[in-house]
Every structure is written in C-alpha cells, then in structure tokens.
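Need a sequence for this fold. Nothing fancy.
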C-alpha cells in the first residue's frame, strides 16, 4: 500500500476508533442515564466556552477559554476552567457567576420555568468562545496564506511554486467564473472582497467539517456568523449601488405610475430578502450536514451495539466525503450570489 493510501485511511481509522471507544464506554456504564441523541447533537453543533475533548462531568477533558464579562462592578476576566464544566460557582471581587447550558448568570438570580427554560440576570458576555477562537484562527490563516502567496509572486514572478500553485487556479476561478460574468468590467474593485468571502467561508466549512472530532467548532453552522457575512454583502451592495440601481427599485422606468407604487415596496423588501436568503442557505446546509453525521454516530449509542459501528461509521464517512464537496459548493454559491447582487447594483443602465 502506498504512502498516500495510508494517509487516506487516517480519517476512517479515527472515526472507527472514536466510535468503538464511545460504544464501549456506553456499554460498560451500567449507571449511565438513557442516551439523549438530541442533546448530544445540539451540544456538538452549538457554541461553547471551552473546547470539549472527551468525557463527562468531573472526568471530562477540555481546553479552557477566556471568560470576559462586563458586570455591574466593571470588567471581569478569568478562565472557563474555573467553572469546572459548569459544576462550580465562580466568585471574584466583581461578583459570583454560574454556567448553565453554556450561558453565564449571576448566582442566585436564575430559575427554571415550567418548560425547563432557564431565566435569570446575565452580565454582558464578550468571552472568547470556541466559535470566536475559530474565527480568529481562520482569519490569521487567511492572512498568512495570502501574504505568503503575494510574497512568493514578488520573489518569483514567473511560474508559480508551492503555495502559489494551489492558490493561483483558485483565484483565477473566482475571477473568471464568479467576478467577471456577474459584475463586468468593474470586477477588479470587488475582487479582494469576493476572494476574502470565498476563502473565509470555505476554510471555516472545512474546519467544522467533522463535528464529532474532539474540540471542533461549527462556525459556518452558526447563524450569527452567516448573518454577519450576509450583512457585509448587503452593505457592499448598498454603498456600491449607482443611480440606475436605486431608480429601478423605487421608481422603475417604463412602468405605469400605479404599478410603480405597487412594486416599489416589493423591490425594497427584496433588497433585505437577498442577504437573508444568503445567511439561511449557508447556515442550513452546513448545519444539516453535521446533524446527519452526528445522527449516524448516535445510532451506536442508541443501539448500544458494536455491530452498529460497522454500519454507522462507513455511512458517516461517506457523508463526510460528500461534505467536502458541500463545503466548497456553499462557499462558491455564497460568493456567486454576492457577486450577482453587486453586479446588479453597479450595472450600467440599458438605454435600449
């Protein structure tokens, strides 16, 4: 077997060992509670104040992250490890806090309603959660990739080598297949934005591709992240729009006045509906893929059998291979639609 084939087996081996370990732990624990698949899935795809590696309760292993709170008594900073996985109260000179379902409350101010929802007084939370950490990490990686590629072209203006060989066809792809066809002759003004959007979303899709990996973060499956990306696209489109663009929204040329009055509100709504569709599409597709993978792995726990691993792991691996394609496609679609909206905003008026 070649060296490359050995590398291709690594994800399969990891998934198989992880599944067997989880199954053995479940089967060996006679005192464990009934497995809750929904809770497990939501735990893995949601944000957290720590990178959970494995285990539960006092025996769990995790990487702590900074807690940054703005309280009644000022700024309070400490590490999430002081909560001991939500089992202890943290007391500082600024106040006392508890961690419940990854939300921080002032001690003694929270209660649970009849439906099981926690309500209470909370400080302003500016903590570095695992999604925020992943956001910072991916931003640094994007900067390093582009800076290294740019320096490579300065040193070797000829044929690309190393990282340049990987980046050049991707950059040309974004330019020739996304920017030029949808924006036109002024495409170069928006290339930095489109390249950033494409690579940023693609990289974060890949980072969160397999949510069962210990410590992984599902940034692209967070609606706040996708909504922020969509709002940035809306701002770029809005401030780039020319006179003809806004005229076609509020007072369409060549249309009877009564129809203009009727269509103007609809066109205005469409301005905000487009970024909404961008945010929901990316969020839903990435989250759905993670849920499917986690649901397959959950079958091992639900059935409580080693035999379930023989079915669930190959299926989960197959879905993850498809997710590699989905990760690229979602970055492509988001960038393509962003370019399309920008192209509509900067298009020259048709005098015919």
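Here you go.
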């Amino acid at each position: 077997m070649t060296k490359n084939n050995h590398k291709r087996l690594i994800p399969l081996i990891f998934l198989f060992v992880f599944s067997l370990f989880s199954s053995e732990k479940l089967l060996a624990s006679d005192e464990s509670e009934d497995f809750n698949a929904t809770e497990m899935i939501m735990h893995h795809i949601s944000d957290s104040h720590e990178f959970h590696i494995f285990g539960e309760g006092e025996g769990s292993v995790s990487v702590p992250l900074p807690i940054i709170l703005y309280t009644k008594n000022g700024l309070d900073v400490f590490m999430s490890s002081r909560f001991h996985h939500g089992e202890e109260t943290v007391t500082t000179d600024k106040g006392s806090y508890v961690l419940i379902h990854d939300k921080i409350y002032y001690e003694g101010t929270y209660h649970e309603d009849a439906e099981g929802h926690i309500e209470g007084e909370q400080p302003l939370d500016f903590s570095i959660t695992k999604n925020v950490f992943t956001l910072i990490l991916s931003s640094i990686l994007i900067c390093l990739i582009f800076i290294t590629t740019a320096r490579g072209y300065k040193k070797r203006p000829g044929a690309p080598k190393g990282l340049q060989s990987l980046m050049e066809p991707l950059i040309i792809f974004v330019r020739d297949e996304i920017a030029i066809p949808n924006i036109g002759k002024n495409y170069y003004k928006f290339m930095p934005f489109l390249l950033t959007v494409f690579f940023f979303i693609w990289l974060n899709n890949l980072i969160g591709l397999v949510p069962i990996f210990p410590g992984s973060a599902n940034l692209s499956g967070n609606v706040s992240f996708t909504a922020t990306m969509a709002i940035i696209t809306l701002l770029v489109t809005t401030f780039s729009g020319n006179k003809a663009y806004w005229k076609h929204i509020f007072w369409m040329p060549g249309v009877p006045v009564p129809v203009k009055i009727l269509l103007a509100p609809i066109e205005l709504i469409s301005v905000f509906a487009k970024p909404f569709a961008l945010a929901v599409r990316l969020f839903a597709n990435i989250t759905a893929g993670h849920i499917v993978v986690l649901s397959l792995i959950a079958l091992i726990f639900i059935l409580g059998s080693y035999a379930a691993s023989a079915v669930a792991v190959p299926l989960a691996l197959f879905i993850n291979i498809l997710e590699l394609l989905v990760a690229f496609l979602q970055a492509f679609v988001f960038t393509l639609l962003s370019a399309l909206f920008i192209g509509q905003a900067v298009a020259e008026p048709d005098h015919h």
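For context: Residues 15-32 have pLDDT under 50 and may be disordered.
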